[in-house]
Amino acid sequence: MQKDETTLRVLTVNIHKGYTLFNSRFMLHELRDAIREVKSDLVFLQEVTGRADEAVLHVEPVQYEFLADTLWPEHAYGRNAVVSGKNFGNAVLSNFPIVSHRNHALSMGPGEPRGLLHCILDMGAGRAALHVMCTHLGLRERHRQQELSVLRTLVENEVPPEAPLILAGDFNDWRSRADALLAPVGLVEVFRRADGQNARSFPARWPLLRLDRIYVRGLAGDRPLFMPRQPWAQLSDHAPLAAELQLRE
């Protein structure tokens, strides 16, 4: 990696609506402290709650706003599901201006709705706009295959071939099939490129399954970052993934 190229630190984590494994404790404040400690330029969040229905008696904070407050000046949210007056989906927190954002439905048929949040960032200084996508795919293999097909089509139709792209989130891809399905659109997974396999991320306390991913295209370089087991093992059911990425001049 060249020192004269812009380096970005990115983090992706499924925050499980602010609860630990088995919903035993609400850990949103501790999550905020841990996320801030990573000092990421971009944060990709899954299972984060948005603004609740005003009829809900015990209104929780808008989680992505609470996590971004005073540190990330820009954020975008894509609502995917509504349950008992509360909604949740994916969010991106950014140190760079978000020029536009759009949430795309990925689901087809029954099951929990899944989506893809697509943001375009202004990187300044005459640099190309950066496309970032945050997603959370389904639990069933058949649903994931359909969702990945839709996702790939969205990349083909909405991201110029020469544009830099980061795609991150919870892919629930315990069979490790997403890499091959996304390769035709030029996406490469950071941990697989470095280590030969995707990172273990679930469950957070004793990671066994390789569910979470950071894919990139059109960048100058990338490398995974080590994330300590603590305090993350106590904060959610997923361990986070982080990487250092470099933009082309």
Descriptors for this entry?
single chain, 249 residues, alpha+beta, Deoxyribonuclease I, Chain A, 6-stranded mixed β-sheet, globular
Can you tell me about this structure?
This protein has a single domain (about 5-245), classed as Endonuclease/exonuclease/phosphatase (Deoxyribonuclease I, Chain A), CATH 3.60.10. It is globular, with a radius of gyration of 17 Å. Helices cover about 20% and strands about 35% of the residues. It has helices at about 30-40, 65-70, 140-160, 180, 190-195, and strands spanning about 5-15, 40-50, 75-85, 85-95, 100-105, 115-120, 130-135, 165-170, 190, 210-215, 220-225, 240-245. It is of the alpha+beta class.
List strands and helices in order, with pairings.
Elements lengths: L6 E8 L13 H11 L3 E8 L13 H6 L5 E10 L2 E9 L3 E8 L9 E7 L8 E7 L4 H18 L6 E6 L7 H5 L5 E2 H6 L16 E6 L3 E5 L15 E6 L3
Parallel strand pairs: 1-2, 7-8
Antiparallel strand pairs: 1-12, 2-4, 3-4, 5-6, 6-7, 8-10, 9-10, 11-12
Radius of gyration equals 17 Å
End-to-end separation in angstroms reads: 12 Å
Using the coordinates shown, work out and report the CATH topology: Deoxyribonuclease I, Chain A
In CATH terms, the superfamily is: Endonuclease/exonuclease/phosphatase
Helix coverage percent of residues? Answer: 10-25%
Number of domains: 1
* Average pLDDT number: 91
The secondary structure category is alpha+beta
Instruction: Sketch the topology as an H/E string, one letter per element.
Output: EHEHEEEEEHEHEHEEE
Indicate the proportion of strand residues.
Answer: 25-35%
